[in-house]
Design a protein that fits this description.
Elements lengths: L7 H11 L3 H16 L11 H10 L4 H17 L1 H4 L7 H9 L2 E3 L10 E6 L10 H18 L1 H6 L1 E6 L5 H4 L4 H14 L4 E7 L6 H9 L3 H4 L2 E3 L5 H4 L18 H14 L1 H8 L14 H5 L12
Parallel strand pairs: 2-3, 3-4, 4-5
Antiparallel strand pairs: 1-2
Helix pairs in contact: 2-3, 3-4, 4-10, 6-7, 6-14
Length: about 300
């Protein structure tokens, strides 16, 4: 098994948080390998152990759940290609999103066992210039890198800081129920993102409709982890250490442009990875257990149920 060694504190955290021990990890990866060999579209794929353990951690080492997440991940490339496939880092549209820094994981964690904090700069979005699906695609591309490289992310989870300053109709009009469901499916049911908390900054009246659609597809536990702030960030600083934040958000760890430059270069180095994994898709005409969009997304007409808890 080729999996990065954990520090002693993360090893303890992994056992407490996701039920991982070295013996459990070895056995679980072996089981996933056996399962992969039974899947026509996955049998020949070059899938590293580090990728598999990310899905196992996201499933708390429940083998069936990990299999379901992997299957959903590759199925989404067929049924949601606008956000899950055709990922070419040097395409003009993706380069544009990388340059504005929409999704930026921070360089430090508050402690050795803290979640990875990710800055989501909705404020950088220009509704007349950018496509929301491109922004989401790039965010998911970066999340894949975190799944491979960041043990804090896969074991301790994610803490999101979402800046919605100057949120306008341009982005809200593109945030449809179907897209909302696809995003939640990617994050929760395939990429195993374990969101510990979400801090929404500069939240004004225009946020309500978009937040309704997003919260609609979240579980009751997750709904309680979303916190809104207008212009006063002091409450957020009680749980988010200033030392990990960029200067622009009251912190001391460099500037946003430093993060933009880092993640642009990092995504570009993963060009071969994206190409390889975009080519792995189920053949629904041959695979007896291939999924369709209705099965994976489970989209229902639920406008009448819109409500804020």
């Amino acid at each position: 098994m080729t999996v990065r060694a954990l520090s002693s504190v993360l090893r303890k955290k992994a056992e407490e948080e996701v039920n991982e021990t070295p013996n459990v990890a070895d056995a679980a990866i072996a089981q996933l390998r056996d399962w992969l060999h039974q899947k026509p579209h996955l049998r020949a794929a070059k899938i590293p152990d580090q990728w598999l353990i990310a899905f196992l951690r996201g499933s708390k080492f429940n083998i069936n759940k990990a299999q379901e997440k992997l299957d959903t991940y590759y199925t989404l490339k067929t049924i949601a290609p606008e956000i899950a496939a055709n990922r070419h880092p040097f395409d003009a549209s993706i380069q544009e999103i990388l340059k504005i820094g929409f999704f930026l994981p921070l360089r430090k964690c508050s402690t050795d066992t803290s979640p990875r904090t990710c800055l989501v700069r909705v404020a950088a979005f220009n509704g007349t210039k950018h496509s929301l699906t491109d922004l989401i695609k790039v965010a998911l591309m970066i999340i894949e890198i975190l799944l491979i490289e960041d043990d804090n992310f896969t074991i301790c989870g994610e803490e999101a800081i979402v800046d919605v300053k100057n949120l306008g109709f341009g982005i809200i009009s593109q945030w449809t129920p179907t897209l909302a469901k696809k995003v939640v499916t990617c994050a929760e049911k395939s990429l195993s993102v374990r969101l510990k908390s979400m801090h929404v900054l500069n939240a004004g009246k225009g946020l309500k409709a978009a937040l309704q659609l997003f919260k609609l597809f979240l579980g009751s536990k997750m709904k309680t982890r979303i916190h809104l702030y207008h212009k006063d960030y002091e409450k957020m600083y009680r749980t988010v250490d200033k030392s990990i934040l960029p200067v622009e958000y009251g912190g001391t760890d460099g500037h946003i442009q430093d993060l933009i430059d880092h993640w642009k270069m990092k995504v570009e180095t993963y060009s071969d990875w994206y190409a390889q994994h975009d080519s792995i898709r189920p053949d629904e005409s041959k695979s007896s257990d291939a999924k369709n969009s209705a099965n994976v997304l489970g989209i229902v007409n639920c406008f009448k149920k819109l409500d804020i808890d």
